[in-house]
Design goal:
The protein is an all-alpha fold and 145 residues long. It has 4 helices and no strands. The chain has a domain of 90 residues. Helices cover 63% and strands 0% of the residues.
Length: 145
């Protein structure tokens, strides 16, 4: 039987802090001018990067809602909340990049990848949530297991 999740990860505050750190890092990364001119490693690699990064943020967002006041929120509403968060933050990120030298801002393709990442993050959170909500199993040192 797998070990229960650490108690820290069972708190909504942990996931809200993780989400805030994710957002702050997004802002910092989007502020870095692109002067390299290097070609991407493969076609659409920037879209994959957007999807993965937003999946990570949406996972933290969904877990923060699920572990806190939104605990009774239906999966449908939680999914919608993840998509809306990704759409708003993705739009903000694209807008912000339009002021950063060497960056392409307002990219519809990047924004769509962000929203898809929101859906992927919701799915990942749903996979993690049962483990995080599971009550800790008390240790027993007797021979009766």
């Amino acid at each position: 039987m797998p070990l229960p999740a650490p108690s820290l990860t069972r708190r909504a505050a942990f996931w809200w802090l993780a989400f805030a750190a994710w957002f702050a890092l997004l802002f910092v990364l989007s502020s870095i001018p692109n002067s390299s001119g290097n070609s991407p490693p493969f076609v659409m690699s920037d879209k994959v990067a957007h999807l993965c990064y937003f999946a990570a943020g949406a996972t933290g967002f969904a877990l923060a809602l699920s572990m806190g006041r939104g605990r009774g929120m239906s999966r449908r509403r939680l999914f919608a909340a993840c998509l809306v968060m990704a759409a708003i933050v993705g739009w903000f990120d694209e807008w912000h990049q339009s002021f950063t030298p060497g960056r392409d801002g307002n990219s519809l393709g990047d924004w769509i990848a962000d929203v898809l990442g929101g859906g992927a993050g919701f799915a990942l959170a749903m996979l993690l949530l049962p483990r995080l909500r599971r009550d800790a199993v008390p240790c027993s040192f007797s021979g009766n297991a």
